[in-house]
Write a structure and sequence with these properties.
Elongation Factor Tu (Ef-tu), domain 3; 16 helices; six-stranded mixed sheet; alpha+beta; Rossmann fold; about 25% helix; globular; about 30% strand
Length: about 600
Amino acid sequence: MPSTLRFVLCGSVDDGKSTLIGRILYDCQQAFSDQLRRVEEDSRRYGTQGDAADLALLVDGLQDEREQGITIDVAYRAFETPRRRFIVADVPGHEQYTRNMATGASTADLAVVIVDARKGILPQTGRHSRIAAMFGVRHFVLAVNKMDLVGWDQATFEEIATDYRRVAADLRLTDVQSIPVSALTGDNLTRRSDAMPWYTGPTLLAHLETAEVESPATGRAFRMPVQYVNRPDPDFRGYCGRVAAGTVSPGDRVRVLPSGVETAVESIVVWQGTRERAARSDSVTLTLAPDVDVSRGDVIAAADDPLEVADQFQARIVWMGDEPLTVGRPFVLKLHTREVGCTVTRIRHRVDVADGRELAAAQLGLNDLGVVNLSTSRPVPFAPFDESRELGGFILIDRATNATVGAGTITFALMRASNLKWQDFDISGEVRADLKGQRARCLWLTGLSASGKSTVANLLERRLVTEGRHTYLLDGDNVRHGLNRDLGFTEADRVENIRRVAEVARLMVDAGLIVIVSFISPFQAERDFARSLFEPGDFREIFVDASLEACARRDPKGLYARAMRGEIRNFTGIDSPYERPEHPDLHIDTEKLSPEECVELVMRSLHS
């Protein structure tokens, strides 16, 4: 059976990507007759080649793409020749669709970078090359297209090839083949060009048929992320997954990570029965003897060469979110089959896509490439991406919207989880709370400035102390005089402000106190992060609600008036958003209730 090559086709807008792959499909007779008839019909409506068939329409399948003559989505096509099977990802050229480029590159073995001979190397050329290299592509083809429009000029081709070699050198690429082509006429795609006798290298298809690509996971020890625990009946327990590296056989000693428990493979089960061996890319079910605790997201690895386990990493990332990436904002990180909470603890630098310079950055915007430090809520088994795509590539998911907002690759662990251990002491938080005769909790008051949070918090603490409770009140203004005096009011600083306060509140609850937190805390994601630090029931989100107009009227500091005049920037409710709580534990309306009535509602909720 011929080997399979996955490659990504990338380049700037209108460089001819879709025409190139459409021409190859046509020349290799990989297009069905009904497809060709449809292309001929659509060419008359949307085509760019006059009466001739516009072969780009074999690939540009979306209606918008046909009408605009551009690629928007990632278009996958499979074809084969007698020598090899191919799966090609045709990705968009527009900068706004950089996320699609990352998708196409993440599974590719080789990248074909197309450049318009009239335009030469463009910023998007560098951007796409960097993203492809970031996601593990090490084999590149520079296809200098539209040579027919520059008179098949050798000097033009060689100048562009020289310019791209500088890009390749910066990315430390050692396998780059430059080929002059014309996608419109088919020159040097599947047949040699009579118009360019000065070029003696392979055609594009010939190079793709013979390119030798090897996964970095080849030759490494056995690793298999567990995707599913299979329990069809009480007598069978198997662990399903796709082998990411190495081989495994019954009797092999393995280790389950992150727990580190060691056992042995009893059998390898597939739908046809059992097998004596499983290798990389095989999807199998393993049974273990003795059976141990294994869950989805664990990794079963060779016992004598296990994976690293860590909870802090340095990673390369391409940011796909409309809102900027800021330090401290919580996300869900999906790494192989494991999902954990995650925060970006530092943005080390942003990468200039044009020349690869490392630029200082406080945040990453849409389509930015950067290097960041990550911290996960629990230790995760991993391999550096350069060793394993499957175990080192991840995505970041927005907690509020479940949208994928970032994709990245782990370079190395900043600190192994085994180097740090949570110290268990004899006196627990429950013991401390029992000594005080109360249940320790965090009462988190959120709302606009001047909504009444501080007034309600003050009366609430007085009421609790009167009843003999042990409390502490964390107020937004007061904390900024000390713990958070180094923070401003940018979005990044606000996120860090809440992160610090949430951690302090957690420690105080562990000390057995009832902690009242009075902070605007405008973002739902940060309030959800704060909740995640506490045991169920120990965190109460209390929405202190008042309209913007009411807050502005009762504002004792005159801040709303100043913000409306533009004298204060990033003021919540004016030029910085406040995300109303989606499902608060308690909603109190300070326009309808007096402060005393609000406190009474809180007390009732605590006793219910």
